[in-house]
Structures are given as C-alpha cells and as structure tokens.
Amino acid sequence: MAGDGYRVGVLGATGVVGSTILDVLAERDFPASEVVPFASQRSAGRELEWNGSVLECRVLSEETIQGLDVVLSSAGGAVSSEWAPKLVEAGAVVVDNTSHWRMHDDVPLVVAEVNPDAVEGHGGIVANPNCSTMQMVVALKPLFDEAGIERLVISTYQAVSGTGKAAIDELLAQSRAVLSDHDAVASVYPHRIAFSALPQAGSFAAGDDHTDEERKLIDETRKILGDASIRVSATCVRVPVVTGHSEAVNVETREPLSPERARELLTSAPGVTVVDDPAAARYPLAIDAVGKDDVFVGRIRRDPGNERALDMWIVSDNLRKGAATNAVQVAELLAERGLLGS
Known about the structure:
Elements: E1 6-11, H1 16-27, E2 32-38, E3 47-50, E4 53-56, E5 70-73, H2 77-89, E6 93-96, E7 125-127, H3 131-147, E8 149-158, H4 165-179, H5 212-225, E9 231-238, E10 245-253, H6 259-267, E11 272-274, H7 286-289, E12 295-302, E13 309-316, H8 320-336
Parallel strand pairs: 1-2, 1-5, 5-6, 6-7, 8-9, 11-12
Antiparallel strand pairs: 3-4, 8-10, 10-13, 12-13
Helix pairs in contact: 1-8, 3-5
C-alpha cells in the first residue's frame, strides 16, 4: 500500500474488536497509506485480507512501532499500559480501547457524537469508553444538553462478544450441549451462560460490591458528560446474546422533560435512531443492531413514580459503535483537526 495518507497501526488485530476495526477502516475509507496489524507472538506472520490487500501481522517491538501516525489499540490493558507510551514516544497518537487509560486525568475520554472537542487536549493518548457507556452517552447527550441529568439507574443486558471470542465459542458450545442433553462446561464465566442470565458482567475488585463494568458506567459517564455530580446506579448482566448490548435506563433530569420532547431530541441527534412504536411491537432489538453503527432508542416513557424521570431502552452493536467504530471516528477527528503526524 502506498500513496498519500497515514500509517495506521492496529493492536490486537486478530481479536474480535481488532478485526472489526480493520473492517471499519475500510468501510469508512480512512485515509491510510499503510495499515500495520499487530498481534501476539503466536499470530506473528499470520496474513489478513484487508481492502483488497494482504496484511501480515507483526509483533510489537522498538523497531516495528517506528513511523506510525496513529495506532488503534485493543490488545488489553497490560499491553496498552506498556506500549502506548512507547508508541507515543515513537511519534504516534494512540486511540486506546482498553480500560487502562480512561480515567487518567490527562487522557481525554471521547465519544465522537458527544464530546469531540476533547481530542484537542490530548497528550498522545485518546481513550475509547467502555462499550456499555459508549452507547448510553450517545443517547443521553441530547437530553443532558436540554434538561441536565440528576440521576441514572441502569440495568444492562450485555452480549458475550464483549468478553471476546472465547466467550462466543463457549456460549455456542454450551447451547449445543444443552440442546443435546449433555453437560455444558463453563470456563470463561463462573456459571453456564447458555439459556441463563448472569448478574455479573465483569469482575469484582477486592472489597467492592460492584463489578468493574458497573464502575465504568458510573465513572466514565461522569467524565464524558463533564458532570461529576450525576448520581449513577448500575447493575450489569451478561446474557446469552452473541452481539448487541441492551440497556434499560431510567433518567432523572434536572429540568422538566416530556417523553415527546425527548423523542424529538433523540430523533434529530447524530448517531441515534429512534424505534419507538411498542403497540406495533417496534422497539430496538440486539439482533437488528448487529452490523450497524447507530445507537437505537425506544420505549421512551414517563417513569410513573417520578415526574422528572424517563425510562428508555438503548441498544447498539458493542463491537462496532461500542468499540471499533468510535475508535475510527476518533482517528478521523484527529486527522480532520490536523492532530496526527508531524
């Protein structure tokens, strides 16, 4: 690949998010002169088809990271904590999809439709939010701008692809086992996920009765919206869905906001599609969001117990808008604003 454009690195290129990033880069015609996939040692030399070309996976080293303009990273927190600073020192801007950098005060946490101007203050690293936070704040932003937000009560229904390929394989294998009247072995999750729902998405830190997924929703939402006073209650649940996170969100606004006005605001909001005709069984479904980049919102209604609160149902493809698409959108923002390259 030669020509005008940026040298783009993709960390974790063989994973479910990394492979989706490669797809989105091609779909959105990101101005890349070269795309360099990075993977673990066991995938070194593996060839990936991309946009009519064949890319060869490389291993991270002081030599292989030279000359990159932007790196989209989804290789895990340990890799990111070690290599993101090295990539920045080598001249790249890192758009990081791991949890490691999100809450650092000097690292902007950016959702393209919500706080794009935050990229201006980056010091070499821009963080991508957690997938559940990502889709929710896209839907919350127009309501926040109109009426402010006092409190959020969130229940998530998270797909197994958020955990990775091993979780997808386990769900499918367990489903086949149960349907064949065989024992279903659980290794990725603490219990069987097939035909069940686990009230634990993420892991519990010592002494904490909230999972890290729940803490991300609490902390990241406040940082992205720029309001530390928002009260957030979150329960994250893993469900036997391959792709597509769903969320039931109760939004208590600071100022009065009717369901009709909320629907108007969401209909005109960037990156949002309203599907809200419950009498006709029209509302967002995870299976309908797969492969799409919008956040889908429906079941918009008044909370009967609180005149300043609304209930909403929010769905999005967690691999695309929840991870890969936003990472590419952030890279586009950096390129448009002249914040890439020397």
